[in-house]
Amino acid sequence: YMKEAGYDPQAAVELQELFLKLSEGRQSSFIDGLFATHPPSARRVQENRELVQKVGAGGYRGEDVYERKMAKLRSLQPANDAHDKAMELASKGEMKPALDKINEAIRLLPREAMFYALRGRIYQDQKETEKAAADFEKAVELYPEMFKYRLYNGLNALRLNNLDKARENLTKANETVPTSIAFLRLGDVAVKQNNRDEAIAYYSKAAEAGGDVAKEAKRKLAALTQ
Predict the structure, then answer these.
(1) Which residues share a beta bridge with 7?
(2) Relative orientation angle of helices 196-207 and 211-225, to the nearest 10 degrees
(3) Taking residues 89-111, what's their average pLDDT?
(4) Residue 182: helix, strand or coil by DSSP?
(5) Superfamily of domain 63-177
(6) According to the record, where are the TPR repeats (predicted)?
């Protein structure tokens, strides 16, 4: 079938030879999973070698596509390295060098949403809420389906008292991945907008979680229902 479809059957044999080598002395459950339904064997490899000799090697291998994809990935590596270094520096509280590094990443790859999201969080830490807002908005624009960018945007909008924007982004975030912090802050938005029943519903949902979020939600819920 590979030959009729224009592919090189020899490539399949080479892949099976690699699988056979990997299977020798394997310990990883991941490797076990790869071979669960089609365990490699020297006999099967030999049979396929003989089949290739019969039908003939040659055909499409996809090396050109692979090389193009790898070239693209290699070109992105410096930007991703700068992002990773910025993350490392930020985790140590070294925000100024972290900002320098994430700016470098953005210069190299200006349409990567996660770079703007990280810079927004750095700006937040530096109390630069307006700059953070612009970066979170950019991250959402580039990747609107990513719930955490919506979450960051919504939480920051609430800090700026931009209630409609906060509600929109927190709601969108919860549609993808519901989180207790989003429910809690949606409750805060509802309180500010004088929507008591909605606030009670959101706080009740947040109170189902654990930790500090649940404690805050229960306290605010009690204040509304006493």
Answers:
(1) 60
(2) 150
(3) 98
(4) helix
(5) Tetratricopeptide repeat domain (1.25.40.10)
(6) 113-146
